[in-house]
Amino acid sequence: MTELTTQKDNALAAIAAASTLDALDEQRVDALGKKGWISLALKSLGQMHPDERQQAAPAIQAVRAEVADAIEAKRAALEEEALAVQLAKERLDLTLPAPDAPRGTVHPVSQVMDELAEIFADLGFAVATGPEIEDDWHNFTALNMDESHPARAMHDTFYFPESDNTQDGHRMLLRTHTSPVQIRSMKEQGAPIRIIAPGRVYRSDSDATHTPMFHQVEGLVIDRDIHLGHLKWTLETFLKAFFERDDIVLRLRPSYFPFTEPSVEVDVGYAKENGRRVVGGSGDDPGHDWMELLGSGMVNRRVIEFAGLDADQWQGFAFGVGVDRLAMLKYGMDDLRAFFDGDVRWLQHYGFSPFDQPTLSAGVGARP
Ligand code: DAH
Hints:
Low-confidence stretches: none
Largest sheet: 8 strands, mixed
CATH class of the largest domain: Alpha Beta
Helix content: 40-55%
Mean pLDDT: 93
Bound molecules: 3,4-dihydroxyphenylalanine
Strand content: 15-25%
């Protein structure tokens, strides 16, 4: 028994002296573990004479309880101490300036779409949207491209399996342009109408200047007595506001799109500065050239009829332009693929502050 008391005193002293949870656990194993001295003492009860055991058992149990309690108490104390240290370390002085924290940026495509919405809202245009999963009626047929139309083959279309066809047998696809939003908007709202429709479009195409997903913005104006002059003025006003300069010169070239008649391709004058194309000036000026920027035209009367309107009463113009292309021209990126890599360094460099909303008064292209 005296030996047990000595062992107990030693253990209690070691427990009290333990300065870490690991050191404390060593004591626990030493005393209460399978081969610990208390466990061995308890085992020895089996070999004792019953009288002896009657005396020894409560004494050993008392030692066991005392040591176990001491370990528990010490553990609680050490844990509390560790928590206090951690809390002290993580203490924040809220009166100090905020530390640097990672901050996201607005993607240039989103930024340009916001700029477009701002510019066109000022001209009385609403923003319309349509589904990216479209049917071939809205994407092609209603835009005057019936099944045999060669222009259908020019769009490298992602089709869904036939089993996903709509109930009326229309083939489902990823829209190849934002033009189907023209049809949906006319059907839903009737005329007169003034909308832009920015969004994602998809074509099976991939190189430095093409990605399978890219962005377009569609414009549509339907009213009475609309003519090409309205189209030219609208595009000029838009491009001046967008590029934030007054010397934007446009050249309208005859072209062909099934959904417009007549169709015009619009070129913009630019100069090369430090290897970069800078929009501005006439393409006929010395050192300048023309660059093709967008497609447009007077809406084909067949399209107006497909959308359920009376083409003798209503006419208008439409245009379509690549949003990524506009962003590259304005903000000077040269590889389209980087737009969709999600590389944080690229986003930090070309992205915009979320606090910097484009407004006409403060400048639609404020830099971060
Ligand atoms: N939808 C055409 C394309 O993706 C672009 C376009 C051209 C849209 C002329 C128009 C337009 O509204 O009038 O290539």
